[in-house]
User: Fold this.
Amino acid sequence: MPELPEVETVVRALRPHVEGSELLRLEPLDPAFQGLEGELPLPAPVEGLSRRGKYILFRVGGRLLVVHLRMSGRLLWGETPPEGRVRLALRFRKGAVFLVDRRRLAVVEVVDKFDRGLGPEPFGDLSWLPEALKGSRMPIKGWLLDQRKIAGIGNIYAAEILYRAGIDPRRPARSLTGEEARRLAQAIPQVLKEAIDGKGTSLSDAEYRQPDGELGGFQLKLAVYGRAGEACPACGTPIARVKIAGRSTYFCPKCQR
DNA sequence: TCATCCCTGTGG
DNA sequence: CCACAGGGATGA
Assistant:
């Protein structure tokens, strides 16, 4: 479910609640998380809350509590447990962070050092991109989804970014011209920032929520994702859907070449 | 570089 | 009933 914009939205919303607050205890409500509590020297203040790619990092007592929401995880802030399958609670004096996860795919662990082999964040100077694409025969869509190459892009935003850049998602990465690669390098941070401004994408109300339970807003601005058969906003051509690397991929066959 | 699997729920 | 779902680790 959550890609970078959703994870960033979650981190920004939780930060004022947890940063500098004392984490009192970790309650595993799902057996998979038993034993996690012993890994942290509690109680201890949360020294920092940050995001790297799609990972959420709580710095506590010199260690890192790492959360990845995968497809269906949510982090909600509240005083009492929310509806749904609550798997873990991080208790503070004034409330708690609840991990809700319908599919039980979310991952939580405690580490001393965070190293997942992630590629660079998709912001700032992306002038390295054109050169990086040259080595790969992967479809450009698959390349964008590979977290080792660039961190944080998922299935929705890969589609939206390639639409914005006017590039066919099936093209081998190394077939992009310098001009196309530069368009891509522009589209990546543009689309992601717009999605963060929109507080993320909630496609169905069963999935992504902000920590206060509200839906995101960017689903209203999606140009192609989930819109197979609908008219391209620019040219009216029906949006096509194909599978790339096992994932549904949406694009405009006329605008994206 | 690709299928397969993890897990559960929903929608066609 | 089966296909599919916003992610990613794994092994061929």
